[in-house]
Amino acid sequence: MTTTSTAPTHAVDSRRAWLTVVAAFLSSAVTLGTAYSFGAFFESMSDDFGSERGATAVIFGLTTFLFFWLSIFTGRLLDRSGPRVVLLLGATAMFAGLVLTSRVDSLEVGYVTYGAGVGIAAACGYVPMVAMVGGWFVHHRAVAVGLAVAGIGVGTMVMSPLSAALIDRYGWRDTYLIFAVGGTAVLLACVPLAARPPGDGSPQPSRFRDAVDSPVFRQVHASAFFLGLALFVPFVFVGQYAKERGIDSVQAAVLVGVLGGASVLSRVGFGSLVRRFGSFRLYRACYVIHAVSFLIWFVAGGSYVLLVAFVLVLGVGYGGFVALGPIVIADRMGVVGLGSILGLLYTGPGLGGLIGPPTAGWIIDRTDGYRWAIVACIAACIVSVALLFGLPTTDDGRLVRADDAKG
User: Which residues pair with 393 in a beta bridge?
Assistant: First the structure.
């Protein structure tokens, strides 16, 4: 029995296509939900290892970095071997990574076990699966991709407060064992639902050179990097910020869950608005929304209501960014070899995720407060917005297709 997907006989936008949406939804929910629930583990792991905030945040930074950067290779693996091989690799990495992390006796070993295990699993469970969905749809691509990536929001919404509750009861180590078994089972269940998009079944070409040679792609990539510097900071620190202001651990973890829930609605909502407003116009608006959200955090103080407002607004911008990115790139460069292109695109926020949270932790440790870390996030968001202006855009709000313009 071979694990490589064969060329399907089903047509685009068919019932079979919607099964791939289910696979992408579930795989992104379990892999990214695990990664983005790290904030619930932050205090327990920091106390256990006696580490500072910046050092502990490196675990999340490495995971985010590896997730996005390894997507270059898993996206290419999708193009060459099909989605089932990718999912099996992700399931293996998740199980091994979380089981080993539950046994580590030093933070530095945790960098490797958690960072590599969850990072590889996330690289398999998100970008390649979204690229797979994109190839299965033409008329309903925006809605299908929006539903697929909504899995990240649902996973975050469920797993962050669930993590806090399980940690309170069983401790962080046994909670990772529970996630290892449950997450692996979900990924294995996704394997038969996934399939190579319609075509002749041959491997798709790499598009790395096309992307690197495009000034427009490079500018979008740089913008995503600056956004990543800010975006991932709240996933690590907003719960800790709340707990330091007297909010209990589960309520603090709910903040990340609310962020995930808001992103679910925006992923689906923005996808349904693409035809009316244009993918790139909406994508740029999401970057502006990120900047506004950090301004709310700056003035929130100890108000739980304002903290909820912050994560709600951030979730809207984040969800739109995730849902619209593949559509913006597909509009610009087409769907052939989309896995490799998206993998390259997401190295931008991946590098931002490696630098942003540890740097924020270092600033918080040195200034004994969050104000300057939030200011740095606002500055990064402003730069990310500025980089998206001046790009060639059609009258209906999309990036000009690469075939119709140079760059």
Answer: 399
